[in-house]
## 1
Amino acid sequence: MPVNDRLAAEWNIASSSECWTCSLNSNVDWMTDAQGLGTALSQPARVFGNRDAVARRKAIQEVYSEDVVFTDPEVTVQGRSAVDDKAAALLAGVPVDFEFVEDGERYVGADMGALAWAFGPVGARVGRGIDVLTILDGTITSVRTFFIDTASE
């Protein structure tokens, strides 16, 4: 199965040239609102960019609502454990030099955000897509992941 079919990428609010996993400690103050959108958008790379299972589960507790719904072209899953399973499976199936990077403009609304991403080793990305997240009270309640249709390229 191609890597692009297994991707379940997440968010970060780093500059477009930075690796999501390299910017986890950056201060995100570009946007604040009642829903905590700016803060929530800066956190998911702690999950999908994290190969340390204990740290990843801790981040999931902080980043996602208990009943989060995660949908990608392969499946829809619900709950924090299911998100952990998706992240673990994705990371287990790719080399350690794979990383997520922003791959386009960020779009934000009152309680939603969208970000294009690329995944793979530096200089040889193997997957691209966009995530659309819904945020409530500073936690992610839903994720919709869309992959670029490589058949049309």
## 2
Amino acid sequence: MKFDEIVDLSLSFWLNDMAKATTICLLGPPGIGKSAVGKTLAARMTVAARGKGASESAVCEVVDLSSRAPEDISGLPFKGNELGFGSVTDYAPQRWLARLCQDGVYGVLILDDLPAASPAVQVATRQLALDRRVGDKHLSPNVILIVTGNRREDKSAATTLPAHFRNSVMMLDLQVDLDEWCAWYGGQEGHAPVIASFLRRRPALLSGLPSNSDSRGAFPTPRAWTKLGSVYDIAERRRVVLPVAEARGIPLHDVCRFLDAHFDLVQQPGGEPPGHGRCIAPLHPDQHQQSGADGGYSCPGYLDTRPFNPL
């Protein structure tokens, strides 16, 4: 399913008081917006709730399971008292969980990257994901629970989720849609439109898999292109687009393709295109597609002759 389709479906569950009965598990390649589904959903829940007179915004809590320990889910043990039993072991919940268990709270809990979590964390998380509780602490019935993760075929250190888990939740594959992403990207303040223009010309470069990464382990994702777009204008003025793009996780050969297209996508003030140059970064032999005579990738606009602008 596409991004907006999943958000609309989840919002319908919430509006029809079905949040408690439905745990959604979103699977897909890295960097395509799985966590963003929950954040967008929370924003739309806020709009819907305020339309009915609510004053509080929806809570959106993201728990990165790949970097958590089991006690970050189950809570920390302490010595308590139980009438008739003397001393017993009780558990103090984490602050984020306690907040989502309060009466009247509504929003989204995103349990991020479950297949990449340690086995102990996965075990601790399943009770929360399947039963909406940790011990005697129950999630508010108005909180939608979304689990996200990569698939084993994505080659991103993900494990296969147990059969009983897959059989108990709503399993959805998030599909990348170029038009949908470009529309979202165009609404992001301060992001260079040249990124979306390039990807409309080369849609296959929007998203890739770790198994197809370059020698540095970089592979294209909507997340990486978005991060590049947020700093592109500064990098372009300082003529450091290539190293900045690489630092943002874009593969070298895809950066060079982007810089090649730069000639057509960006015009200098006064109507003149950027000066022709040549990408000086060394390329692996299998990346020499459309290369220049010297084996480098032709990159018009990268080594241009414009005055250096440090601002």
## 3
Amino acid sequence: MQLRRTPAWALLVHGLVFVHANGRVAYQRHDGDATYVLFDKGEEPCVSPDGKRVVWRTITPGSADGLYALMWADVDGGARGRFRAGYVSSPRFSPDGTQLLWDEVGDDHQAGVMRGNRDGSGAQVVFLGADPVFHADWLPDGKGIITHDRDGVYWVTLDGKVLRQMAVRDITGGAAVTSDDRFLVSPVDANRLVYSAGVDADPAMQKALQEGLSTGIFLYDLTTQRRTRLTGADTYATAPSWARDGKSVFAHGFRLGKRPLRAGILRIAVDGAITRIAPGREPSQWPHARTRRVPGRHLGRACRRPRHSRSRRARHHQ
């Protein structure tokens, strides 16, 4: 299959991984590509800084108790395997690509943050909070992590020391968050966060979601304590993930109104401009890697993006 010519600006934002509308993990080498490398069905995917390996969560085959597994596969070459099984979620590569971070519920039913080597060895606890924590992510320098529970956001060193703690309500202005929401540090500004939180839905959005609560994407400046909403009342968006240049955020969602956008992967610029770039959900682009152009050949199985796909209503916190 031939790829469309990649515009020069796309070299700054290549390497997006997400869950395709067909349920399979998909890797888009460059923004604007009409084909994707497809992997098995899964969720919560992430890509290594060099763009060579993808990791995602899936239900353990044959499991009767709902156990999950973190699976990995190389983008080129076909090698694949299982990284870890258990009550695991939210894998994220370290800035140097040698380690993975993930959330895990242990045998003692405590939910915490774990890290381990890329080959699966050396698994160890990074942080155990008083309450379950969600969607841990690396700080840009790789020396710590950020994670949250329903009441607090925590900046933690790799040996478990809490460097900073803020109440969720102080960041969100009182808006509630759930286990599906995220707080992520900008790759270019350690004082800037992107986060998702519940917002009241206007009548049109209530009709689309069939409920009164929507989800919005926000920026928060730790220095000025200024909160900026990136998505308007006509846009539902969740699962934010920074683009590596720090100038935009990827999210899953849709837009209503006079300029509608079908449910899928959205790119939301920090000035509020929104474009839809692919069908699917749970987008992730490693934000701290050096950019480079990856050859346009596809050794994995490819899927051509349909020109016209049926609009699907996104479910709240899908």
## 4
Amino acid sequence: MALDDPISAYIAESNMDALHAQRFLESEGVEAYVVEDNEAFGHTFFGALPGIFKPQVWISRRDSVLASKLLAEYERLKAERDASRKANEPQTIEVLCEDCGKTSAFAGSLNGTTQTCPHCRGYVDVGHFEWPYGDEVGGSEDATGWEEGGNPES
């Protein structure tokens, strides 16, 4: 359904942040749409133009009061989750490279990312990534549609 008198209610840090805010609003009964930042333009010789292209969450103006309260709660929960993650974050993460077999140490802030092995330049996964709203992606099959064990989905 199209929004009635749409307004931008939230300017997100990233596309994922915008999608999470949208899902939060919709879980509370507020219809919301995301405009993602997929723009390849907005870059100059000196780098990206700040604030030109930002992911946004749009709602109907009639929902603005409720959405404002909900987005404040979303921001509070996000800050809580980030603080908890930071407090539980190890100072360094030891990673064994599958290509060269050597161990490397990475900063705890890189948990959940893919980095380059300093020994062989191969890719290594640092720590693990936690989805902020549970494991809703995947399940018994991966993103290619193949079930675990290598059998194609029937």
